[in-house]
DNA sequence: AGCATTAGTATCTTTTAGCATACTATATAT
DNA sequence: ATATATAGTATGCTAAAAGATACTAATGCT
């Protein structure tokens, strides 16, 4: 477990949200998925925009540790590292899709009333 | 918006996770749902266990502000306050169910290998 | 008068998440 | 020899989330 491992996981929902609840985690997974399940570090960085290299690396390492993404290093210079979703990570995609749809709907609603 | 409103929402996924990504938010919604969509403050507190009244109140207020739960106050002494999911909140239940199932599966897997 | 009950507040401290900025390694191309 | 590209590290800082602990209001009950 990567984040918030200070105290015990209390249930499956808790377990899940510790893994994907970080500020950029869901988005990173979504971006990788959308780019045919392969994305390089630099591409990811550019897509996210406002993230420091430290945070991006840290987040990617946590996702990797939690078996949600794979990290493939090519023995090249300059370096090339590709990230992809694992099978386990892939299984979260429908969820992210639905939550995203829910979010989109709410955002539209807010625009109507506000 | 309640949490993380410092910078702009960048996409629907971001929007959604700001609303339900808090430490106890998903669980609170799930508990309310499971108890026939009505739960009092004290019950909630006992069910969550390790939460301070400050945190619980704050979390509930954020969920309310985000229109995910209703807060119904009875004019009684001692006080009685009931929380329930709004329609919008209800729409998240299938997803919470899905993620919970995913989490449960992963937890079982981990127990096998570890 | 004093106690129990419920849903909180108030204040302070600690912990965690995230940001800013500068730096590194190294093969290849010029 | 120097510049370029890529995927990061290192160090220090700020902001946000969360925790600990003590307290309150108001009424009915004894």
Quick gist of this model?
The structure is a homodimer of 114-residue chains. With 114 residues, chain A is α+β, with helices and mostly antiparallel strands.
What would you note in describing this structure?
The structure is a homodimer of 114-residue chains. By secondary structure, chain A is α+β, with helices and mostly antiparallel strands. Chain A has a single domain (12-113), classed as Winged helix-like DNA-binding domain superfamily/Winged helix DNA-binding domain (Arc Repressor Mutant, subunit A), CATH 1.10.10. The first copy, chain A, is 57% helix and 12% strand. Chain A has helices at residues 12-20, 25-34, 41-48, 53-65, 87-90, 93-113; strands at 39-40, 69-74, 80-85. In chain A, strands 1-3-2 form a three-stranded antiparallel sheet. In chain A, a hairpin with a 5-residue loop joins strand 2 (69-74) and strand 3. The N and C termini of chain A lie far apart (40 Å). Residues 1-5 of chain A have low confidence and may be disordered. The A-B interface holds A 4, 7, 9-17, 19-21, 23, 26-27, 30, 49-50, 88, 91-92, 94-96, 98-104, 106-107 and B 4, 7, 9-17, 19-21, 23, 26-27, 30, 49-50, 88, 91-92, 94-96, 98-104, 106-107.
Total strands of chain A:
3
CATH T-level fold name of chain A: Arc Repressor Mutant, subunit A
- Which stretches of chain A of 5+ consecutive residues score pLDDT under 50? 1-5
Q: The biggest beta sheet of chain A, please? A: 3 strands, antiparallel
- Please list the strands of the largest sheet of chain A in the order they lie side by side: 1-3-2
Envelope shape of chain A: globular
- % residues in beta strands of chain A: 5-15%
Tell me the span between the first and last alpha carbons of chain A: 40 Å
Please identify the structural class of chain A as seen in this structure: alpha+beta
Supply the number of helical segments of chain A.
6
Mean pLDDT over the full residue set of chain A:
93
Biggest interface, chains and residues, is: A-B, 35 and 35 residues
CATH class membership of chain A: Mainly Alpha
- Alpha-carbon Rg of chain A, integer: 16 Å
CATH architecture of chain A: Orthogonal Bundle
Which bin fits the share of residues in helices of chain A? 55-70%
């Amino acid at each position: 477990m990567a984040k918030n491992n200070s105290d015990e996981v209390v249930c499956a929902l808790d377990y899940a949200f510790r893994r994907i609840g970080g500020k950029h985690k869901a988005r990173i997974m979504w971006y990788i998925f959308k780019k045919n399940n392969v994305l390089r570090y630099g591409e990811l960085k550019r897509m996210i925009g406002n993230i420091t290299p430290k945070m991006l690396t840290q987040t990617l390492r946590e996702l990797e540790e939690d078996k949600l993404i794979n990290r493939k290093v090519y023995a090249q210079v300059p370096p090339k590292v590709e990230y992809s979703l694992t099978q386990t990570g892939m299984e979260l995609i429908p969820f992210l899709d639905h939550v995203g749809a829910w979010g989109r709907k709410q955002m539209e609603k807010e625009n109507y009333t506000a």
